[in-house]
Amino acid sequence: MPTAQAPLLFSDLTHPVVNVAQVPQYSPFRYPGGKSWFVPRLRQWLASRERPAVFVEPFAGGGSISCAVALEGLADRVVMVELDDRVAAVWQTIFSEQAEMLAQRILSFDMTAEAAAEILASDPTDLLEVAWRTVVQNRVSRGGIIAPGSGVLKQGENGKGVLSRWYPDTLARRIRALNAVRERVTVICGDGLPVLAQYIGRRDVSAFVDPPYTAGGKRAGRRLYMHSVVDHPQLFQIAAALNDVVMTYDLSPEIFIMAKQNSFQVKPIRMKNTHHTIVHELLIGHDLSWEY
């Protein structure tokens, strides 16, 4: 398909803008590229079809979508897949009997620049300790970025430094709420593509796919995430074979073309992030008639 057809996708941006600040926050993460803005559309999508037995998120990341599905009971079971073992450790801990230990660690911690630096200098191997270090790093890093080279907050919000995004009561409350539905959730530390492929042919499965944005030479994914290499053509082929899938990608001609080559419907969408900036993305699926 010639690239000349791709600009057509930029012309249909008339839908209402979702303000992330008005969407319930379920995840303990501050996550670059987070998908809280999709939650209202998530409800529309899943309400438009038979309740899925399994909901799969192969690039879980900050987990906003999986958390919403689990807490709002939108599917019988949720499968979260995350390749970054540090992020996966947080989810594995939250959905285990160690969740309360993590919550208590957060509540009792005296957050200072020195205390945070000591934790970030550690190299734990125990699952709970890895989860604890990851939570601290996520909350004190600029933009929540925990990829190599990410910096720690200096001045922060109103000069609060590392305390700017440290809300222990809120974090503990979210962790406890998620742990209460742990029987519905499976966390897999690994590559999302082969896990996603396991559900080909299942009519009772819905999948939400939000990969690192690295297609077409995009650099955002490489800067924001520890693991950003994705075989996008293979991902599209697997997704095309699934019964029910919705994908979100950056709004680019390369992705538009790839989606059309795999017989997907596409819709440009807008959202307002926490910095009140309008961001454009691309919604991709077999059937997007549910999308307002």
Question: Could you explain the architecture of this structure?
Answer:
The protein has 292 residues and is α/β, with parallel strands linked by helices. It has two domains: 1-83 and 190-292, Rossmann fold (3-Layer(aba) Sandwich); 85-184, Orthogonal Bundle (Adenine-specific Methyltransferase, domain 2), CATH 1.10.1020. It contains eleven helices and eight strands. Strands 1-7-8-6-5-2-3-4 form an eight-stranded mixed β-sheet. Helix 3 (85-94) packs across helix 6 (127-140). Mean pLDDT is 84; it is low at 1-14 and 216-227.
Compute the average pLDDT: 84
- Separate helix tally: 11
Strand content: 15-25%
Say what the CATH topology of the largest domain is: Rossmann fold
What string gives the helices and strands in order? Answer: EHEHEHHHHHEHEHHEHEE
Shape: globular
Features:
globular; eight-stranded mixed β-sheet; alpha/beta; single chain; disordered N terminus; Adenine-specific Methyltransferase, domain 2; Rossmann fold; 292 residues; 11 helices; 2 domains
